[in-house]
Amino acid sequence: MGPAEAQEDGSAAVRTLARFLPALLIVVGVCYDALTPQAFTPVPFFTAAPLIAAPLSSLRTTVLTGLASFLAAYAVHVRHTFRPDVDTVTEALTVATVAALAAGINQVVRIGDQRLASAREIAEAAQRAVLPEPAERIGGFEIAACYEAAQEGTFIGGDLYAVQDTPYGVRLVVGDVRGKGMGAVAAVAVVIGAFREAAEQEATLEAVAGRLERALAREGVRRGGVDAFEGFTTAVLAELPHGDGTVRVVNRGHPPPLLLHGDGKVSPVRVPEAALPLGMGELGAWPDRAAEHPFPSGATLLLHTDGLSEARDAHGRFYDPKQRLTGRTVTSPGQLLARLAAEVRRHTGGGMTDDMALLAVRRP
What we know:
single chain; alpha+beta; 6-stranded antiparallel sheet; 10 helices
């Protein structure tokens, strides 16, 4: 069993214990009263039970827990005397008050959960709008994409991917926007929007990269502040010409794609000259030059962000996709990405520190 599975099993055990804990506290309270002198009160156990049930259970369960606690608190006094004295009334009212508060807490928690669920639905809709799932087959190529957020419950961040079938071939982009939050999401929308327009209109991949550079420059000026001077996006663009067994690549400061051959060999798709990330054109002029590599039948092109190559385990060791993928045969892009995502989660023990975007293209 790997670290991720162990962590998941541990979480399930904690959730199970939490569900039964209120009833267990009532039983412990009754046993405590039976085994201790009359001067010792079990009321703390009875008041804790509905409070624990409130954020974890339904309103009905919370109310029933409060009622059971009230009856248990009254019953332990009746065991000693049938006449309700001051202590009996006081402790019974204390438990009843706490039970009522627990019911109110339960409703507040439920409202918060509903709002969180609504926010997640909105975030998921935003992700589908900004990063739509590509079709399984585009321009004769098999396609699959995957987005893994580092923070649980987060649907979209600064990583991006897009695929576009154009008159010049199938064009792809995978990138990583500097920073987090809504500013990064806005930059993602700008890059993808500019890419889809430029991919259709520009005759060369270098010109597409230039359009993305200008779009980010305009966005930086519009946003102002520190992002106008420090905002940038690493990206790799690829072009798969129709009827041609090659791939052209422009790399803007991004991890190189990997070419997975049918015989299990894995080779990075590098460019001869390094270039600055998008949005840093003011620092110098490095003209883009697309590098061309063979892309034979049965091979798979894997584009990824540094959430894959910089994923660390508990000892600080990086996940090496080239080493891990060497010797494997890829039957479909979707299966490849599912296995990669699962391996990264196991490698990090479920504690990813950066988002991860994966895009795989296979030439049948």
